[in-house]
Amino acid sequence: MSQNIYFLSGIEKCKKGEFAEAILSFDKSLKMDPKHLETFYNRGVAHLKLGEFVLAIQDFDSAVGLAPLRADIFSERGVAFHLQGNNQKALEDFNHAQQLEPQNPYRYSSRAYVKAKMGDVRSAIADYEKAIALDPEDEVAYNNLGMLQDQLGYRERANNSFKKADKLAGVEDKAMDGPEIDEMLAKHRAEKEAERQRQAQVAQERREAFKVETTQNTLSKWRIVKDVFSKRETFQEFVSFLKGGLKRKGTG
Predict the structure, then answer these.
(1) Sign of the CA dihedral 123, 129, 131, 133?
(2) CB of 68 within 8 A of CB of 36?
(3) Tens-place pLDDT, residues 128-172
(4) What do you get for the CA distance between the two ends of the chain, in Å?
(5) Is 33 exposed, middle or buried (0-12, 13-18, 19+ CB in 10 A)?
(6) DSSP string, the chain
(7) How many whole angstroms separate alpha carbon 19 and alpha carbon 197?
(8) What kind and span of H or E run contains 34?
(9) What distance in Å separates the CA atoms of residue 126 and residue 109, rounded to the nearest whole number?
(10) What Cα–Cα distance (Å) separates residue 61 from each residue in 75, 77, 118, 132?
(11) Which pTM does this prediction carry?
(12) Per-residue pLDDT tens over the stretch 213-242
C-alpha cells in the first residue's frame, strides 16, 4: 500500500509539472518495489522532462527489461536518445515501436522526424503520409510534411500541406509574418528552457539534501553501535541479546 501511495504521489506531481519532486516519490516507490514497471517508466519520463537523458535512458532500459512488448517505452527511450544526439539509437527504438503498434500514427510521425534529421527525407515523407492516412486531423504531420516537400522542391504539394495544417490548427485566417512567428517561438522556447533549468536545480538540491539526510541517519546509527561497544556492561548485554535469539533482557 505504501508503494502505491509513493507512486500515485509521483504521478500527481508529474501532472502539475513538478518533475523534480515526482522523481523523489518514484525513488521511494522503487525502494518498496524494485521491479515496479510503471515507476521506472514514469520516472524515466520525469528525467526526460528535466533534460536528464542518461538517467531517463537507464530507467527506460529497466522498463524494457520488464515489458519488452510495450511500444510506448521504446518510443520514449527513442526521444531520449534523439535529444541526447544519438539518432541511430533513436531510429532503432522508433522502428521497434512502429513494429509493435503499426496502426498508431504517432509511431510513424516520430520516426519521420528522426529520419528527416538524419537526411533520409524521402523515407520521412512516406512516414508522414502514413501518419496522416491513419490520422487525417494531425496538423503537425501536415506541417512537417510540407516542410520536407518544400525541401525537395515540391512547391505545390508543400503549399497544400501547409494550408491543411493551418486549417486544422485554426490559424488560416490569422495573418502573421515570419519575424512575428519567430519571436513567439523564441519566447515560448525561452520560457520552457527557464522552467526546465529551474526544475533541474530543484532536483539537484533535493538530491543533495537527501544525501545529507541519509549520511546523518547512518552516522546516528553508527554512534549507537559505537556507544554499545565502548561500555563493557552494555556490550555484554548486547552479546546476550544476540545469543538469546534477539530477545531483549527481561523478556526471555
Answers:
(1) negative
(2) no
(3) 999 999 999 999 999 999 999 999 999 999 999 999 999 998 876
(4) 34
(5) middle
(6) -HHHHHHHHHHHHHHTT-HHHHHHHHHHHHHH-TT-HHHHHHHHHHHHHTT-HHHHHHHHHHHHHH-TT-HHHHHHHHHHHHHHT-HHHHHHHHHHHHHH-TT-HHHHHHHHHHHHHTT-HHHHHHHHHHHHHH-TT-HHHHHHHHHHHHHTT-HHHHHHHHHHHHHHHT-TT----HHHHHHHHHHHHHHHHHHHHHHHHHHHHHHHHHHHHHHHHHHHHHHHHHHHHHSHHHHHHHHHHHHTTSPPTTT-
(7) 12
(8) none
(9) 10
(10) 12, 8, 24, 30
(11) 0.71
(12) 544 544 444 444 444 444 444 445 444 444
| Grid cell locating 130 | 502514413
**In which element (H, E) is residue 21 found?**
helix 19-32
Q: Name residue, grid cell 522556447.
A: 189
Distance CA 176, CA 180 (A): 6
Q: Which three cell numbers stand for residue 159?
A: 503549399
The three three-digit cell numbers of residue 23, written as one number: 522523481
Amino acid in position 95: N
CA distance linking residue 72 with residue 75, whole number of Å: 5
For 25, 26, 134, the CA distances from 198, given in Å and listed in that order, are 18, 20, 38
**What burial letters (b/e) apply to 218-249, b meaning 16+ CB within 10 Å?**
eeeeeeeeeeeeeeeeeeeeeeeeeeeeeeee
